[in-house]
Design goal:
This protein is of the alpha+beta class and 317 residues long. It is 45% helix and 27% strand.
Length: 317
């Protein structure tokens, strides 16, 4: 990259950091003369940036807006990184991929010949695997979720879980996390009074509320690691669902920290829990000492039947 372009990038970076720079201080930071500084400022103006200047010995510079036709100023590493990132996102046939392809084409057209050759050389040498087939995210959904996170407004949406269960959720969104070719929303589910992780590609009809909420402390410092841990949990866990002839508040008081409870009537509730084995769900239904119905999974129902036969045989009944 030519010295003049490098200085222009450095000058633009400095102007973006502070509202106002005295000319002498700015020239010293760039290690150039006042005359060279003025030429570099004129170069930014030619590219479409508005740079206001105060005349005189104590004069200085401040950065305004751009005309909308501003050339993209990137150094070589940034140009390559952006081209490769957009190339990776431009896979498949989703609207996100199509938008990324359009952005990639425009970015390459704004680069100088040398940068364009380098970016296209690296991009063509990078082999990226196919995206996950069931993880297509619509930009309209992604935009709505991101807006809700930014503005701290509650969000409602239709959701289909991994097992096909459909539900309508009402949450306080915290943050979007991108992992393993998928987008996830970390949010506080107000109906379940607990933190949940949702795949954005399984969301439908997102609707933003009007009133803002006070954000809760997030469930973890590093939400990317938090989502990764949740993903590993779901891969090995059993999702156990039972209906029990017990008041929901009674179950919440005893086990609310470990299970999710839904009211079905004055003396009936549905219990949902994730478990690595059937030991804990078995203990819960046995300890409640009330009639219950296993809604899933079938393996838990078979486990309880096998256990019942074993206990009957062992007691000689």
């Amino acid at each position: 990259m030519a010295d003049t372009t490098a200085r222009a990038l450095r000058l633009l970076s400095l102007l973006q950091r502070r509202r106002y720079w005295p000319g002498a201080e700015l020239a010293a930071r760039l290690q150039v003369s006042d005359r060279t500084l003025r030429r570099d400022v004129d170069r930014l103006r030619e590219l479409g940036y508005t740079v206001a200047a105060d005349r005189g010995v104590a004069g200085g510079y401040r950065l305004g807006g751009s005309t909308g036709d501003t050339a993209l100023l990137l150094d070589d590493d940034e140009a390559i990184a952006l081209a490769v990132a957009l190339h990776s996102a431009a896979r498949g046939t989703s609207d996100l991929a199509e938008a990324s392809l359009g952005a990639l084409t425009k970015v390459l057209s704004t680069l100088g010949p040398a940068q364009r050759r380098r970016a296209e050389t690296v991009r063509s040498a990078v082999a990226v695997g196919s995206p996950t087939g069931d993880a297509t995210v619509r930009l309209s959904v992604l935009d709505a979720v991101a807006t809700a996170c930014r503005d701290h407004v509650r969000l409602s949406f239709d959701y289909v879980a991994g097992d096909g269960t459909a539900s309508t959720r009402y949450v306080e969104p915290c943050q979007l996390v991108a992992r393993s070719d998928r987008w996830y929303l970390v949010a506080y589910d107000t109906d379940r009074a607990d933190w949940r992780t949702f795949r954005v590609d399984r969301m439908e009809q997102p609707a933003l509320a009007r009133n803002r909420f006070v954000p809760r402390p997030p469930p973890a410092t590093d939400l990317s690691d938090y989502v990764g841990h949740r993903m590993r949990e779901l891969q090995v866990a059993h999702r156990v669902v039972v209906e029990v002839e017990v008041a929901a508040d009674q179950v919440r008081d005893a086990y609310g920290t470990w299970v999710t409870v839904f009211d079905l009537g004055p003396s009936r509730c549905r219990i949902e829990m994730d478990a690595d084995s059937f030991l804990w769900p078995t203990h819960l239904v046995a300890n409640l000492r009330a009639p219950f119905t296993v809604l899933g999974p079938p393996e838990f129902h078979a486990h309880l039947q096998s256990l019942a036969r074993h206990l009957t045989d062992s007691t000689g009944s």
